Amino acid sequence: KSADNADIQAINFTTPASTQSDFDGYISVQALRDANTGNITPAQGLTVSSIANISNTNFYNVMLNIYKPEPLTPSSITLKDAKFFAETESQTISPYAINITETDNISIQNSKFVDYLGGICVGLPWPISGKATKTTGTIKNNTISFNPNVIITKDGKALDRVGIEINSANINVEDNEIEGGDIGIMMKNNSSGRISNNTVSFDVDTASKKGASKTGIKLSTGSSSLEISGNIIINEDDSVTTTSVVGIEINASNANIYYNSIGFENGTSGIIRTGINVISPTDTMNVYNNTIYNPLQAFNVTQGALQKKIKMINNIYWSDNTTYSTINDTTK
Fold first, then answer.
1. In what helix (H) or strand (E) does residue 64 lie, and over which residues does it extend?
2. What are phi and psi of 4, to 5 degrees?
3. CB–CB of 98/66 below 8 Å?
4. CB atoms within 10 A of CB 221
5. Contact 43/61 with Cβ under 8 angstroms?
6. How far apart are CA 32 and CA 142, in angstroms?
7. Contact 195/218 with Cβ under 8 angstroms?
């Protein structure tokens, strides 16, 4: 029965490339619909355990999982010119359109992700001769958008809707556009890579609850980026139910932050609208030539037990709010 559809398992998954064959259309991979009602059945998972070369393909209510089971060689993924669409109420497998673990190299480009509970998740190192080797690669020129009226919950608690999540991997994230959600781009657990020329925007939504937070770019738990540059982060959600909006946050990590533009709608006193938030940096940081407009606080720095130097040079910040601050001073 279509209502009892099962996940699909494959070692390799390859679609025709129009540059290499006469194929000049799109392949469609989708979950089944109930034969009697026409309603969408629960989302299906497509799991690939070795190689995925995917292009010119539409995925509808399908979540793609890439991983490397022992003793196969490390898997890899190349995905371009693909489109992922979801009916969010049917997602029961994973919050991500693509979930990649224990891979060698990835390239995800020129693709679109619509209304999944999360966009792209890459992470977890794979072992070689007893040593863990991190995934490398590029996520570039993709569009990720969220349904503003849907909230993720687990055990009664709200979970973050994340556009691109890097977990224990070395990935460059460039030229992507992320609209909505709670975190645009997140690197955690000793991840690294360049984050450049992305656009993250937060619109007014009904999914955010009081006490929730939104962050454009976030590094945490020992992660490092030599270059967070040229990104545009725009917050248009001025709802008082959203208590915290931060443009860029570096938490127990380090980064060089250059030439970013971070903007806010007029803030309300008592809520958080911070341009760049640095907590317990792990190394010297350079913060140059950024523009921050309409924050309630342009920069916030909270040093850890071992204080690190933060060089702030030639940044521009201004606000139309009646009460705002440029930078806090935790040394007083």
1. strand 62-66
2. -110, 35
3. yes
4. 15
5. yes
6. 26
7. no
What the block records as the tokens of 28 is 């469609």
- Are 214 and 244 a contacting pair, CB within 8 Å? yes
**Most distant CA pair in the chain: distance in Å?**
69
- Beta strand 169-174 with 143-145: parallel, antiparallel or unpaired? unpaired
How much is the average pLDDT of 40-52? 79
Residue count (the chain):
332
**Token pair for 165:** 């999540």
Whether the Cβ atoms of residue 52 and residue 75 lie closer than 8 Å to each other: yes
Contacts of 156 (CB under 8 A, 6+ apart): none
Q: What is the DSSP string of 264-287?
A: EPPP-TTSEEEEEEEES-SS-EEE
3-state secondary structure of 215: strand
CA distance linking residue 197 with residue 159, whole number of Å? 27
Identity at 235, one-letter amino acid code: N
CB-based contact 300:272 (threshold 8 Å): no
Tokens of 265: 């709608």
Q: pLDDT tens across 170-189, in order?
A: 999 999 999 988 999 999 99
Radius of gyration of the chain (CA): 21
d(CA 68, CA 58): 24
Tens of pLDDT, residues 63-106 = 888 877 655 566 678 999 999 998 755 555 567 899 988 788 89
* Phi-psi sector, 282: left (phi>0), alpha (psi -120 to 50), beta: alpha
E strand or H helix at 54? strand 44-55
Does this model's pTM top 0.85?
yes
Between CA 217 and CA 212 the distance in angstroms is 16
- Residue-wise pLDDT for 106-146, tens only, equals 999 999 999 888 999 998 654 444 555 788 999 999 999 98
Identity of residue 256: N
Q: State the residue for tokens 């669409």.
A: 85
Pairing state between β 112-114 and 310-313: unpaired
Give me the long-range contacts of 21-24 (CB less than 8 A, separation at least 24).
23/56
